[in-house]
Specification:
mainly alpha; 65 residues; single chain
């Protein structure tokens, strides 16, 4: 009986550790996804700013020529 109880306790400890690790990794993945979305948004905004600058330079060059 003691052997069975000991094995059950070991299983419970390992299972709890597994669950803790899973939750930690899950949290990290969510955080990374949020950061990726933020980076993508920033990239999109920079692209739009660059396009606007290029358009203004093209207009300036057309008007000054």
């Amino acid at each position: 009986m003691d052997v069975l109880e000991s094995k059950l306790k070991d299983y419970i400890v390992k299972n709890n550790k597994f669950i803790e690790d899973y939750e930690e990794l899950r949290s990290e993945v969510i955080s990374l996804k949020d950061k990726m979305n933020s980076i993508e948004d920033e990239r999109y905004n920079l692209k739009k700013k660059i396009e606007t600058i290029i358009e203004k330079v093209e207009i300036y060059l057309r008007n000054s020529g």
